[in-house]
Amino acid sequence: MVLAALYGSSLSRANTEESSLDTLTKTTIPYKDQERKCSSFPPPLKDIRFTMATYITLTQLLGFAGIFFVATIWWAFILWPITGFGITGGAHRLWAHRSYKASFAYRFVVMLVNSCANQGTIFHWARDHRTHHFHSETVADPHDAIRGFWFAHMGWLYLKKDPR
């Protein structure tokens, strides 16, 4: 049931619009005609990242247990904007888009607060985000929104990356 919500409910390829121009081959391929690695629901067991699914589940359970402690709630509200800046100012703008240059000290601090955000390494974050922009709304998009809201936001974390 959880996988159904995370994997996305819009797996049918019938009512989808044509994708944008494929930047690798410069040919237009309608989204509905693009081959999906995982076109059935539920996905094959070989495509599920069970280690990541266990990790995300345990993190959520520990977070839920923390709501009973006032110190944990305060700590969460302090870390929320700090780690948010590590993601938006660091992994997103500095490393993924290379939109500004920064000193080594600044990059080091932003790397640390991004690490506290628990979203993986800056290298993987930037790689996945660049891939997302390069292949936006195609099957090669790691956060393919046409596969559904939950897949675009979390479901992709549960599946192995398509090597294509």
UniProtKB/TrEMBL annotation:
GO biological process, alphabetically ordered: unsaturated fatty acid biosynthetic process
Recorded superkingdom: Eukaryota
Keyword set, alphabetical order: Fatty acid biosynthesis, Fatty acid metabolism, Lipid biosynthesis, Lipid metabolism, Membrane, Oxidoreductase, Transmembrane, Transmembrane helix
InterPro entries the UniProt entry points to: Acyl-CoA_DS
GO CC terms in record: endoplasmic reticulum membrane
Membrane topology: Multi-pass membrane protein
Broad class of where this protein is predominantly found: membrane
A molecular-function term among this protein's GO annotations: iron ion binding
Stated family: Belongs to the fatty acid desaturase type 1 family.
Protein name: Fatty acid desaturase domain-containing protein
